[in-house]
Design a protein that fits this description.
Strand order of the largest sheet of chain B: 6-7-8-3-9-10
Number of strands of chain B: 14
Helix content of chain A: over 70%
Radius of gyration of chain B: 24 Å
Oligomer: heterodimer
Radius of gyration of chain A: 22 Å
Shape of chain A: globular
Number of helices of chain B: 10
Number of strands of chain A: 0
Distance between the termini of chain A: 18 Å
Structural class of chain A: mainly alpha
Strand content of chain A: under 5%
Distance between the termini of chain B: 36 Å
Chain lengths: 323, 328
């Protein structure tokens, strides 16, 4: 592998992907998703805040801020139970309701306490709306990633476009160069997404100080980048193996979306089926927004480990296949 | 990397050595134990009907496909280490497309940048090469502005970029008008004369191969039928067609067949015969013609017409057992 080639190919892939259409679609899809989620989260708060206080008072910045804070506080109380249930490691058949007023005595109860603490961290210690947006993005982003990464190699293998590069750079350089190029694009897209959402929330909502929002956005965006890596690597592997863009997109979407589906449906009959989620980061990716740095570290490690495995498999496939 | 894998090519070493290469696609044997050498500085033609394995062989030579068995060395380097040939080996692949959304200049300049050139030098070189193939005025446009023939020329331009020592051209003139095809042939010849670039060409056009190439190999159904210098092959395959004043008796035919340099005599009509020749070294065709005419005249037979058939096309059809050229 040649480092100069890797960087050159990464730069070229990054530059031309946006012009190629797929990169542009990916960017627009990401921004649309982020802003839609932000809008959906913000709208009820705005509406409720307007209703909650005297209209004259709402016109002042202080009055609006207080009203929004009060509404957010009111909304987060019931939301906490749901978020806590979502984040708990219990099976999908457990209900969120009976958890109120329980005594922590068993493993499940310890998990509940942990989940409550986690929900409290997200909804009370951090800007709740941003946390909500990041939670939704965390669970929807993997599907968006497949749209950005499915064509890493596939269509260029099918059209034999890669053949022009193969006598000028070795296969490993091409493989890693394109992967690096996509990751660079992804970082740019996610940064743009984080900043756009923060700007949107900051301009529409006065409840949170900018510094608090920017700090949480930076962490959330970083975690989304880390989360993207294993999915990008997985799509890269599928793309290298499929050798056709339609097959690659279909397989990537089916695998990424199918894993949690199989886990959820399977766990209705067999509790152990929920561990299927661990084949991909689905099993632990929510911990990227955990309050405990150790849990964050473990989730990051899990993502990087899966990235390494998928990159290894994809690289191996790319080296051995006919191009 | 082995020591032999990276050995530099010596003058005596062929530019390309194909040794017992086989490749299967499922049940189909695309290449079956193919071996031949391509001498340095030669223009080597690779011929064969559809499905003969020419493109498969090119693809293996460029490292796009992996052979199931056998080895292929280019300039002394095992093709498994194809990246070590960077800048020394280029190819015009068949049916490979360029990027739709990137200007021609940027695409080709990127290839030269991979070869280690800075952007300005790369762009200057690309512009000069595009001028050679008549596409300089399109350099800032996308490939959507190019016709099929122009795309072929663009592919050829990328193969000529830099200073390659070996160029593989898979069907370089297919789809080109006669003028452009001639231009490409002239370019190949000039490169060989000026820089002794070894060029391996596959082509539909047998006359083109005969005109351009000094060496040739013929593949059929994945098997190598013949390989060597064009002159030698044609010498072995030379034919004479003769029309006589009356049908020849068996004894007269036998006398013709026994002449030195005659391999066989075939009936081509009531008074037409084809003599398959295999001229021994040092024997001129004219001597054989004189001997044949003498034999006929001595027997009281008047030769009415005599023609010499020694085209590569006829040889190709004989070797591949096809009644007409099917192309590839």
């Amino acid at each position: 592998m040649n480092r100069r080639h890797v960087l050159q190919i990464a730069g070229y892939a990054s530059r031309t992907s946006v012009r190629g259409g797929i990169g542009l679609v990916f960017l627009l899809l990401s921004l649309t998703l982020g802003l839609t989620v932000a809008h959906v989260m913000l709208q009820p708060v705005e509406r409720a805040a307007r209703r909650a206080v005297n209209p004259a008072l709402y016109q002042t910045e202080e009055g609006r801020r207080n009203a929004e804070l009060r509404v957010i506080e009111d909304l987060t109380k019931p939301a906490k139970g749901v978020v806590s249930w979502m984040l708990s490691t219990k099976t999908t058949s457990d209900e969120p309701e009976p958890r109120r007023g329980r005594r922590p005595s068993g493993d499940n109860d310890d998990a509940d306490v942990e989940a409550d603490r986690w929900a409290e961290f997200l909804l009370e210690e951090r800007p709740a709306l941003l946390s909500g947006i990041f939670l939704i993005l965390l669970f929807s982003w993997p599907l968006v990633v497949s749209f950005g990464a499915f064509d890493l190699y596939a269509s260029d293998i099918a059209s034999r476009q890669l053949r022009y590069q193969l006598l000028r750079a070795d296969r490993s350089s091409i493989y890693f160069g394109r992967l690096l190029g996509l990751c660079t694009t992804l970082v740019v897209v996610l940064t743009a997404l984080g900043l756009t959402v923060t700007l949107y929330l900051g301009l529409k909502l006065g409840a949170y100080p900018w510094s608090e929002m920017l700090a949480w956005t930076a962490q959330g965006t970083l975690m989304l980048i880390v989360l993207s890596l294993p999915y990008v690597a997985l799509c890269g592997w599928i793309s290298a193996a499929a050798g056709g863009s339609f097959t690659s997109l279909t397989l990537s979407s089916v695998v990424i979306g199918g894993v949690p589906l199989v886990a959820s449906l399977g766990s209705l009959s067999f509790d152990a089926a929920r561990y299927v989620n661990w084949l991909l980061p689905w099993g632990f990716q929510s911990r990227l927004l955990h309050h405990d740095p150790v849990q964050i570290g473990l989730a990051v490690f899990g993502c990087l480990l899966q990235t390494a495995v998928f990159v290894w498999l994809g690289h191996r496939t790319f080296l051995r296949r006919d191009l | 990397m082995t020591a032999t894998a990276n050995a530099p090519a010596t003058a005596a070493e062929p530019a390309l050595r194909v040794a017992n290469v086989s490749k299967r696609f499922g049940a189909n044997k695309a290449l079956d134990d193919v071996s031949f050498d391509v001498p340095q500085g030669s223009i080597f033609g690779l011929l064969g009907p559809n499905g003969a394995g020419k493109t498969t062989l090119f693809s293996i030579a460029a490292g796009f496909l992996f052979a199931d068995s056998g080895s292929l060395r280019v300039l002394g380097t095992d093709i498994a280490h194809v990246s070590q040939l960077q800048g020394r080996l280029t190819i015009l692949p068949q049916d490979a497309s360029f990027q739709r959304n990137v200007p021609i200049l940027e695409q080709l300049a990127f290839f030269r940048q991979l070869d280690g050139k800075d952007r300005a030098t790369a762009e200057a070189e690309v512009t000069a090469t595009l001028e050679l193939v008549g596409l300089a005025q399109y350099r800032k446009r996308g490939i959507h502005a190019l016709s099929h023939g122009m795309l072929k020329r663009m592919g050829i331009a990328q193969a000529f970029l830099g200073n390659p020592e070996v160029i593989l051209l898979d069907e370089p003139t297919s789809g080109l008008d006669p003028q452009n095809a001639r231009q490409i042939r002239d370019l190949v010849r000039d490169l060989q004369k000026q820089r002794r670039v070894t060029t391996l060409i596959s082509s539909h056009n047998l006359a083109e191969i005969q005109e351009l190439c000094d060496h040739v190999a013929i593949l059929d159904k994945g098997q190598l039928k013949v390989s060597g210098p064009v002159d030698t092959i044609l010498r072995q395959a030379r034919q004479l067609e003769i029309e006589t004043s009356r049908p020849l008796a068996d004894g007269e035919r036998q006398r013709l067949a026994q002449l030195p340099g005659v391999r066989a005599v075939e009936d081509r009509g009531p008074q037409r015969y084809r003599l398959q020749l295999d001229l021994p070294d040092g024997m001129a065709a004219d001597a054989l013609v004189a001997a044949m005419l003498r034999s006929l005249l001595d027997a009281g037979v008047t030769p009415r017409a005599l023609s010499q058939g020694n085209s590569l096309e006829e040889f190709f059809l004989t070797v591949t057992g096809t009644s007409h050229a099917t192309g590839n």
